[in-house]
Every structure is written in structure tokens, then in C-alpha cells.
Amino acid sequence: MGQLASAHPFLDGNGRTILLIYMELSYRTRFAIDWSKTNKDDYLRALADEIRDPFKGHLDDYLTPFVIDISSRDEWPAMISGIKGLDGLDKEGITYKSLDDPEVQRLYKAYRAMPLE
Asked: Using CA atoms, how far apart are residues 98 and 27, in angstroms rounded to an integer?
């Protein structure tokens, strides 16, 4: 998951896309994550740590307690809908800026300019 996020961090909020890719890769390697038991803020913290300091196991450490036996793809809609905060309603009162906003563009450019290690 960290390598996917590092390669394409989905800074515009498309984390659901990376989630589905990860679910498919996990399925193919015969395990799944019980996302409904995870905490969005803790997960995002571990993901940020993984991107900032890759290959140190930040995401592995966070996700390991939530590993479950492989599930059928038919169960995915229920698994995904059980993720707390996925609908974005957990952040009431936050004003989201347009991707065209100069400050948002500055942040994107700064991120892209970060050296890869």
C-alpha cells in the first residue's frame, strides 16, 4: 500500500482508488484487511509515515492486526461501506479548496519536487 501511495499519492482525495487496487492485490495473494475495524486517522498517519520513511513497516505494523482470511469479491461492497469516514462525513465543517486554487497548486508542486530516496 505504501509503495502504491508513494508512486501515486492520490493527493486529490482519490484514496478509494488506491484502496480498491490494494484490495485486489491482497485478494490475489490470498489475504484481506478488515477495513471496518481500522481507524481512518490512524491509517492516514501510518500511510503518511510510510510515504515519508518508506520500507520501515509503518503500514505493515498498523494493518497486521486487521488481516483476515481471504474473502470473496462479492463481499467487497459491504467491506468498503463499513469503512468509517470513507464517505467524508467525518470531517464536518471543513471547507475543501478547488484543485485550481493557487495554494493547492503550490502544495502539489512542492510535493512533486521532493527528492525520492
From this structure: 35
Nearest to 66 by CA among 39, 45, 87: 39
Tell whether the torsion through CA atoms of 39, 47, 14 and 114 is positive or negative.
Answer: positive
Q: How far apart are CA 101 and CA 75, in angstroms?
A: 39
Distances in Å between the alpha carbon of 10 and those of 7, 35, 67, 98?
9, 19, 24, 15
Backbone angles phi, psi at 32, to 5 degrees: -145, 165
Whole-prediction pTM value?
Answer: 0.63
- Picking from 20, 12, 14, the residue whose alpha carbon sits closest to that of residue 1 is 20
Enter the C-alpha cell of residue 27: 485478494
DSSP state of 54: T
Q: What is the largest CA-CA distance in the chain?
A: 45
Q: What is the pLDDT of residues 58-72, one digit of tens each?
A: 999 999 999 998 778
Angle (CA) 8-13-14 rounded to 5° is 60
